[in-house]
Amino acid sequence: MSASPKLYDYWRSSAAYRVRIALNLKGIDYESVPVSLKPGDDEQLSEAYRELNPQGLVPFYDDGVVATSQSIAILEYLEEAHSDVPLLPDDERGTAAVRSFCLGIACDIHPLNNLRVIKYLKGTLGLDDDQFGAWYAHWILEGFRSAEAFAAEHSSDGRFVYGDSPTHADCCLVPQAYNARRFDVPLDDFPTLVGIVDACNELAAFKDAYPVDPDA
Ligand SMILES: N[C@@H](CCC(=O)N[C@@H](CS)C(=O)NCC(=O)O)C(=O)O
Known about the structure:
By secondary structure, this protein is an alpha+beta fold. Helices cover 52% and strands 6% of the residues.
């Protein structure tokens, strides 16, 4: 394994943000290699980056042993390769529940609001800002309704989605809530989720992963 794993990253990518949190929680030092998704830069679509990841999306992770795209695949790999700090419950039922929560966010909310979808809605289909805002909010609110019920059932004390320690579920929830707040989606109906996000954001691993614009 190389001394410094590389995370191909963009500060505001919520999928990359999931991985940054997991790396921090596990205490894995890594090098962040910026791939600018900023319209006009579009480095994710460059030939050089597509040679690495033909999907043209971030994140991409390479530690010299495994080189892979897809944040959930990366989280699962990190779990296998760095099991000293577990981010999945130690029983099958809990693990299945956490995976289900994560895929609810990663497969059923995030892809509907991703950058290329936004570009298509606003550019190709010509949605105005209000129509786009309604689309964006709809899919977050729809997904967060079941996420709220899940967290209310499974969180031990309101600090984490499942049980009393951080899991992949928190790695997925916190970035999705960041996206919601970025686009002013009201989260008043999700007190359990908001409490968890705010509690997680007090922890160093989450703070250090928080999106910071390098050009600000
Ligand atoms: N399912 C992928 C999603 C990756 C993804 O959509 N990344 C976004 C940033 S959050 C991206 O690279 N978007 C670039 C684009 O849409 O052109 C994962 O979980 O890694």
